[in-house]
Write a structure and sequence with these properties.
The chain is of the alpha/beta class and about 210 residues long. Helix content is about 35%, strand content about 20%. It binds adenosine-5'-triphosphate (ATP) and magnesium ion. The site of adenosine-5'-triphosphate has 18 residues, from α1, β4, α4 and α6.
């Protein structure tokens, strides 16, 4: 089993997430890729975040016609904040040691990983895939992984070996400078959202006047 896990707030999901997921899924020949919306994101102001059920529904709409993409409501099944360490431990237990688990994060998120709960314990649990993202420097990733976490980089700088034996892949995916923040801002201004996110999700946002 080759399982991809893609966590995020997904408020809302957009083509930056989806195209990255598609390219990673193809490159790693994943059997399944689960989008895992954070129920109570530790880093975001709880009152400002759109309800979990709404964000979940938008992800569901976005992946409905993809045979390998699914959405997971796991993080809503726990009463506490959504910590990745708990999620990864759950999947490792569920799928066993033989499964290859790939945790997908954007470069901006990875560069903040030192603020995550028990972040050093994340790396032995799974492989990581770091998505390139406009505005963030890959050189900082190298510094973080090699200087602070004791990884060895392969000469091409795309694969890093963690002392635990797990790997961290840096993927130069198609760089789409799209963010949920930008989409919420455009929606609030009544401007067009076309071609930034799947059309089903765009229509859902307009129908329920999200972010208006
Ligand atoms: P917000 O602006 O609300 O923070 P976002 O667009 O960053 O939203 P998130 O839900 O925070 O979306 O992101 C989930 C994950 O996807 C993070 O790891 C983030 O780094 C990554 N990601 C988001 N957008 C892109 C993009 N355009 N390219 C590459 N990675 C992305
Ligand atoms: Mg973000």
């Amino acid at each position: 089993m080759r399982l991809g896990l893609f966590g995020g707030t997904f408020n809302p999901i957009h083509l930056g997430h989806l195209r990255a997921a598609e390219e990673v899924s193809e490159f790693l020949a994943l059997d399944r890729l689960l989008f895992i919306p954070a129920a109570r994101p530790p880093h975001k102001n709880a009152t400002a975040v759109t309800p979990f059920a709404v964000r979940l529904e938008m992800v569901r709409l976005a992946v409905a016609d993809h045979e390998r993409f699914e959405v997971s409501d796991l993080e809503n099944q726990r009463p506490d904040k959504s910590y990745s360490i708990d999620t990864l431990r759950w999947f490792r237990k569920e799928y066993g040691d033989a499964a290859d688990i790939f945790f997908i994060v954007g470069l901006d998120a990875m560069l903040e990983i030192e603020t995550w709960r028990e972040y050093r314990n994340l790396f032995p649990l799974c492989h990581f895939v770091v998505l390139d993202r406009p505005g963030y420097a890959a050189a900082e990733l190298h510094h973080l992984l090699c200087r602070k976490l004791g990884c060895q980089a392969e000469p091409d700088g795309q694969i890093f070996h963690h002392p635990s034996g797990q790997r961290i892949y840096f993927r130069a995916i198609t760089r789409l400078d799209i963010s949920s923040t930008q989409i919420r801002r455009l929606a609030a201004q009544g401007r067009s959202l076309r071609y930034l996110l799947p059309d089903q999700v765009r229509r859902f946002i307009l129908k329920y006047k999200l972010y208006a």
